Amino acid sequence: MKWEENVRRVIPYVPGEQPNQPDMIKLNTNECPYPPAPGVQAAIEALRPQDLRLYPDPGAETLTRELADYYGVKKEQVFVGVGSDDVLAMAFLTFFNGDRPILFPDVTYSFYDVWAQLYRIPYETCPLDETFHIRPEDYRRPNGGVIFPNPNAPTGIYEPLKVVEEILQANRDVVVIVDEAYIDFGGKCALPLIQKYDNLLVVQTFSKSRAMAGLRVGFAMGSEKLIRYLSDVKFSFNSYTINRPTLALGVEALRDEAYFREITGRIVATRERVKRALRELGFVFPDSMANFIFASHERIPAQQIFQALKERNIYVRHWDRPRIRNFLRITIGTDEEMDILLAFLGEYIRERT
Questions:
Q1: Could you read off the pLDDT of 118-167 as tens digits, one per residue?
Q2: Which of 59, 123, 184, 249 is 20 to 30 A removed from 287 (C-alpha atoms)?
Q3: How big, in percent rounded to 5, are the helix, strand and coil portions of the chain?
Q4: pTM of the predicted model over 0.85
Q5: Is 32:209 a contact under the CB 8 Å cutoff?
Q6: Distances (CA, A) of 330 to 20, 50, 61, 143, 223
Q7: Residues contacting residue 265 through CB under 8 Å, at least 6 positions apart
Q8: Which residues of 46-70 are buried (b: 16+ CB within 10 A; e: fewer)?
Q9: pLDDT band of 212, cuts 50, 70, 90
Q10: Which whole number is the average pLDDT over 173-183?
Q11: H helices then E strands: how many in the chain?
Q12: CA 321 to CA 248: how far, in whole Å?
């Protein structure tokens, strides 16, 4: 068809399956296994349906101020979007606008190359080393920008801030984005570095540690100039991105620090217990600092285990891609869910070894 010549074509990002089965154990999309903070429930009950006739605050002022106070930065240093995917997409559109390729790891969040293709941004991937760690020296060449998650996905590996700063020092003339979707489960946030590097953008989300994946809240923090540029692009794209209920619920989720510490601590404790159990079953994996484990069995192919789990309505994530096709990404669920997973894996592996 003639009109197809003008269609923008891209290979889309493929999210994890979203099955709808009452007896399933869903460990494939890194969602929090616990409900949001109690204050969120109270805020839901206080919502007034008649307010939905009004547009939301385009600047998301209440949530932006709450985030600024929580993280100890100025309101002008915070940008809010519809999940961190929205924030990252706006950042790609805003900051990666040169002729040189942007750089990111070869094993990483698979939305990065999708956005690069969508926005016609040249890019190159930098191979992780044999243990799946970032090699800072790979980011010391001319480029149009740098982005990487920390902890990385899907490996779960956290790079210390000295590695982050080494990359920043080598890239003072481009924007460096650190995607911290999983930072609340281990490691130190790169936020203190924004005082030293005005080209650093730190991106986080409410989807994982604050149990609000269904509402879509993401945010970025950086220098006032970075945030101003990002906001200009956002307001040129869609002024009303965060809806009114989400603004109210996001504020309440941020206010309950005790609950936040409780559920993240519980997830970390479960993660460490499951690591020990998986090792006993013959799995190997990087030392994850996220809310998932990236595991490979020493004798049984990942695809076989993935299929066997799925037949039992236990969903994990598998990619048929170079370097990682023999790994499964297993989200940390409740202790009960993980016990069911481990019991099945133990039985399945014993029958085949």
A1: 999 999 999 999 999 999 999 999 999 999 999 999 999 999 999 999 99
A2: 123
A3: 45, 15, 45
A4: yes
A5: yes
A6: 18, 42, 36, 34, 35
A7: none
A8: eeeeeeeeeebeebbeebbebbbee
A9: very high
A10: 98
A11: 10, 13
A12: 40
CA dist 284 and 131 (Å) reads 11
Q: How far is CA 353 from the centre of its chain?
A: 36
pLDDT digits 0-9 by tens, 241-298: 899 999 999 999 999 999 999 999 999 999 999 999 999 999 999 999 999 999 999 9
On whether the CB atoms of residues 220 and 230 are closer than 8 A, the answer is yes
Contact between residue 67 and residue 78 where contact means Cβ atoms under 8 Å apart: yes
Q: Treating both helix axes as pointing N-terminal to C-terminal, what angle do 302-311 and 335-352 enclose, rounded to 10 degrees? A: 120
Are 71 and 111 a contacting pair, CB within 8 Å? no
103 sits in which H/E element: strand 102-105
Amino acid identity of residue 348, one-letter, is Y
Among left, alpha and beta (phi > 0; psi -120 to 50; other), residue 247 is alpha
Buried b (16+ CB within 10 A) or exposed e, 25-42: bbbbbbbbbeebbebbee
Distance CA 342, CA 327 (A): 16
Segment 156-170, tens digit of pLDDT: 999 999 999 999 999
- Residue 334 pLDDT more than 90? yes
| Burial grade of 87 (CB within 10 A; 0-12, 13-18, 19 or more) | buried
The CA radius of gyration of the chain, in Å to the nearest whole number, is 21
Reading across the β-sheet that carries 317-318, which strands appear in turn?
283-284, 292-297, 328-331, 317-318
Q: What is the pLDDT of residues 45-65, one digit of tens each?
A: 999 999 999 999 999 999 999
How high is the pLDDT of residue 19? 84
- pLDDT at residue number 106: 98
What's residue 9's pLDDT? 86
First to last CA, the chain: 55
Torsion sign over Cα 109, 114, 117, 120: negative
